[in-house]
Structure formats: structure tokens, C-alpha cells
User: Which sequence fits this backbone?
């Protein structure tokens, strides 16, 4: 039986900011805690933007191979540009 993403266990967030405040305070600590406490798929909300933390390599591979199923059309270009900018920093 599959569940909707919103039905999966996730950390409690604020009504307006979602999980943005906790994420901004310490990103690595927040994501590590989410992974250990809530499992392989953790629904999050960063402000008004829905997000999903994937902690299992098989799920990550599936998303990377079939992006059109997981990313809204308008967001794809923006996400690619964002990833390119991050790679320039490293």
C-alpha cells in the first residue's frame, strides 16, 4: 500500500515558515536528524516550497534518472541553474 507524501512521518514545522527556520539554523544537523528519526523519505516544507529529503540511494537514483516525474516543468531549469552555481563554488 503506497502512501501520499504528506502522510509520511515528518518533523513538525511552523505554519508559515514550515521547516525553513530549523534548516537555516544548522542544515547538516537538521537533515541528519530528519534522516535518523523519520526514515528514507521525509516530506519537508521550506517556506511555501514543498521539498522531500531522500535518504536511500535507490530513491535518489530513481529521481535523478526520471526527473520529469518528480520536478515541475518550470522548476527544472531553475534547479539545473542552481546546481551549476553550487558546483562552481566547489
Assistant:
Amino acid at each position: 500500500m503506497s502512501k501520499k507524501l504528506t502522510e509520511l512521518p515528518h518533523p513538525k514545522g511552523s505554519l508559515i515558515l514550515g521547516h525553513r527556520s530549523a534548516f537555516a539554523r544548522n542544515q547538516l544537523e537538521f537533515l541528519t536528524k530528519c534522516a535518523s528519526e523519520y526514515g528514507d523519505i521525509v516530506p519537508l516544507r521550506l517556506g511555501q516550497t514543498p521539498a522531500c529529503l531522500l535518504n536511500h540511494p535507490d530513491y535518489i537514483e530513481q529521481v535523478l534518472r526520471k526527473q520529469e516525474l518528480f520536478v515541475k516543468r518550470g522548476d527544472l531549469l531553475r534547479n539545473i541553474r542552481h546546481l551549476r552555481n553550487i558546483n562552481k563554488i566547489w
In short: The chain has one domain: 5-89. Helices lie at 20-25, 27-38, 57-65, 67-70, 73-89.
